[in-house]
Amino acid sequence: MGSPPHRPTRRPGPIRWFWYALGGRLPGRYREWLLHDLTCRTWPLRHLVRLLTQLAPVAAVLIAVVPGPLWVRVMGAVGGSVVGLLYSYVFLYEATERRATKAGYPPGALRVVREERRAGRALQRAADDFERTWRGPTGR
Asked: Per-residue b/e over 84-104, b at no fewer than 16 CB within 10 Å?
């Protein structure tokens, strides 16, 4: 079930990525990128960017359409967005798991890949520490 250590080369373009951020399905050729997106070291930050992409148009429309002082409209949009972001982060793992199953990955695949990558990074750090400690900077 492991994933390649290299970064996938096929990424969706801006329009496809926007569709994906809104919850849409990507074509099968982006499966490797999607797995990378949902399991890389920065996957929670990527999730936050997708959430902000969903919230920004709604907040802009609410600020533009709702009557009242501008500061009230902005604070309402910001407050609602913060509540929405907090709520979404409660279901962070479930949301990313759902994206993966929509792309055809079996349930639990993300957890396995994240653990493999975490173990790989830990092994690399241990090897680097060993090299620094026992071999020194000259590589004896």
From this structure: eeeebeeeeeebbbebbeebe
Q: Is the dihedral of CA 28, 33, 37, 40 positive or negative?
A: positive
Q: Which residue in 44, 5, 32 sits closest to 103, CA to CA?
A: 32
Query: Quick one: tokens of 95?
Result: 């949301």
CA-to-CA distance for 21 and 14, rounded, in angstroms? 10
Distance CA 78, CA 90 (A): 19
User: What pTM was estimated for this model as a whole?
Assistant: 0.76
Tens of pLDDT, residues 45-102: 999 999 999 999 999 999 999 999 999 999 999 999 999 999 988 999 999 999 999 9
**Helical pair 92-102 and 31-39, crossing angle rounded to 10 deg:** 170
